[in-house]
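This part of the workshop introduces the protein records we will be handling. Getting from the letters to the tokens is the skill we practise here. An example says more than a description, so a record of this kind follows:
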Amino acid sequence: MKIGIFDPYLDDNGGGERYMVTVATCLSKNHSVDIFWDEEDDLYAIGKRFGLDVSRLNLVENIFSANYPKLDKYKKTKKYDAIIVLSDGSIPLLFSKKTYLHMQQPIEHSLNVREKLKLKKVNKLIVNSKFTKNFIESKYNQKCELLYPPVSLIKSEIKENTILHVGRFRVMNVKTEDYKKQQFMIDTFKEMVDDGLSGWRFLLAVSLNDEKDARFLKMKESAKNYPIDFLINSEKDDLWRKAGRAKIYWHATGFGEDLVKYPHLAEHFGISTAEAMGAGIVPVVISAGGQKEIVEEGVSGLLWETKDEFKKKTLRLISDKKELDRLSKKAVLKAVEYSDESFCKNVNRIINV
């Protein structure tokens, strides 16, 4: 079968792009898969960073480009048995035998008449979490297929007194300057050190487009003279070889935001949380968005809502090795549910061409 895949953010090299390229690599084992994109380097950068084999994928001209003639686009889509599109909420009009629309975040607007008509040509809506699913089904009045993101399970036998956070440094296109709450976590750790915490380090593994970004350098400068380290733009294997030694994982996206009005400011799933759990790192993460689906309070990790609760639960784990070990083992078991193998099985079940 001939399958086409389009991700408008393929040059972003982030978690969403890994999701779509992994879908492509899963399907390429039994089908011919085309990626609609004009820059070969972008595809190989994602493959290299996330350890994906993209050799079976075919890069073809991006018929979804704004400058591409619409009539030619429609003609070319007819050649495909299925086309899978990562959508920002917009609905493309395609003429492939089947069309699958994937959405990774809550959509705040309702559909107009034209969009409802185009939606009728979509065979399935696919979402990355129950959190996203609830919003999409409410706005689109159509059932969605849940496909959790793929998570690589990295074993780490050696553990050190390190708290870890993994995430992109990103301040643009959102209604907040500290989208991932990295500055908040730095400030919280500094307070804990000032209050007497010793023998522990905080490691932030961040990806960013420009290492000389003034806003990033300002955040990095705020960590000086504290046991805080940065791991910047590391490829997957190198990242988890170093970061996998951590004992506790922090994530705070959505803290202090109006998540009723702006639900997209919460983590839509939380791949890095699940990956950390796979390495036996105990999550202490905000009880918001997709994090609540990954972490079961007191079973596979700890959830918090206030800054005070965040600090207290972290310090409790630091002082209770037995509890830390128990949660670490349970976290690994939970992460298996999101393994690459499980993901590929579900992709082939959902994309039934």
The first strand starts at residue 2 and ends at 6. The first helix runs from residue 15 to 27.
